[in-house]
Amino acid sequence: MTTYRLETAGADLAYDVHGPLPTDGGRPPLVMIGQPMAAGGFGALASHFPERTVITYDPRGIGRSTRKDGRTDHVPELQARDVHAVVEALGAGPVDMFASSGGAVTALALVAAYPNDVITLVAHEPPLMSVLPDARAAERARAGVRDAYEARGRGAGMAAFLMMTSWQGEFTDAYFAQDAPDPQAFGLPAEDDGTRDDPLLSERSWAVADHQPDVGALAAAQTRVVIAVGEESAGTFTARASVCAAALLGQEATVFPSHHGGFLGGDHGYAGQPEAFARRLRDVLDRSQESRFPGRSGQGAGSA
Description:
Blueprint: E1 2-7, E2 11-18, E3 30-33, H1 43-47, E4 54-57, E5 66-67, H2 76-90, E6 95-100, H3 102-113, E7 118-124, H4 135-152, H5 154-166, H6 173-176, H7 206-210, H8 215-220, E8 224-230, H9 237-248, E9 254-256, H10 274-292
Parallel strand pairs: 3-4, 3-6, 6-7, 7-8, 8-9
Antiparallel strand pairs: 1-2, 2-4, 2-5
């Protein structure tokens, strides 16, 4: 792995290149992006693609990527510009892309604005409140997470976030009638450390969930866009958003193993099934490769 630092007008972006450039076998680089997760979260998944050159990066203001624009919010269109700059810096585009959570929203904005950057996009569980039939109620639930965080700190905010993201179905009166969750019931500290800069729990990332996908631009792009959903996520907010986003694009959501973080290894948060997840991702990408170059599907593929 080689780490690079790309200086732009608004941020200095850190990205990692796992493998050779130019790539082996003519396969495009496979870019993996998240939000607010940084590059480190993709270690387990990247390890299952030894035949591909994998690119990971830290979004501006997160991890090793520092901001120079004086802002603290996370806007998909701005982050899409950053990813475009990284793709250009690689000099090996267009790329394949796997994008998770808020990174999937960034990736949809990227394809809409820069349709020549990506060959195949697998957008895994984009948390798009804007596409939900109960969008207003979802926004109210999100505000409750922010309020808990502002009032009682990270433990209370994360407990409220976990309650929200695990809720089954639309956000009804029954959801809002619940008592505030106890952080310790989730193994979280009840103490308040006084910080209020968490991008997940504050308003800093609200623009991610509020993003309105440009359906016309996505349909016009040559990029094959695949909206993916975890099989264990059924009924949750991110799964419902994925199904709705896929419907807007005239498709059904493609089911992947495990949950929202199904690609994560045991060393990073709530572990998923990275080996099975990688097999599914390789299958989706290889089908795109086969459609472009008949007879070359799986060329050079390793085992996952």
